[in-house]
Amino acid sequence: MVTIDSTLEDIMKLDYTSREMLLEILQKRQIEARRDVMAKNAKQSLKDFNAGKLSASSANEVINKLNSL
Length: 69
What we know:
Layout: H1 4-12, H2 16-50, H3 59-67
């Protein structure tokens, strides 16, 4: 079974440059994964809005709601 601990141990066996490359690759993949989630959420929000499940709000209304959280 692969665990985070065993994976980290394997990663630490790599040379410094390889670990730096791995870190950069993971960061870029995380950014891309987050973009995918945001795009999916935006598409769903548009569907919900077009279906009448959401109502339009002014920028000030949204800001006030966010400030009250």
